[in-house]
Amino acid sequence: MTKINPLLLKNFRKSLGLSQKEIAKTIGINLRTYRSYENGSRGLSLEKFTSFKEALGFVRDAVKDLIKVHIDYLRMTFMSIR
Description:
The model has no long low-confidence stretch (mean pLDDT 85). This protein has a single domain (3-79), classed as lambda repressor-like DNA-binding domains (434 Repressor (Amino-terminal Domain)), CATH 1.10.260.40. Helix content is 67%, strand content 5%. The protein is mainly alpha-helical. A two-stranded antiparallel sheet has the order 1-2. Residues 9-66 form the HTH cro/C1-type domain.
């Protein structure tokens, strides 16, 4: 199971201009739970990340969405490699 790097999750949230409290409320989870994903004490799967994106208004289209999520994951991963 692919896990999202916590730093990349933080960068994703910041790119949306949201605080931890705002994103947790929007995606429907407890603030403490979101913080645990972002600080790395709890692993965030690619599938869970996809559900978070849906809650944030990103459109899901079965095959296309899976490809987009993988592309997002790769972009975030390679962006951090410098």
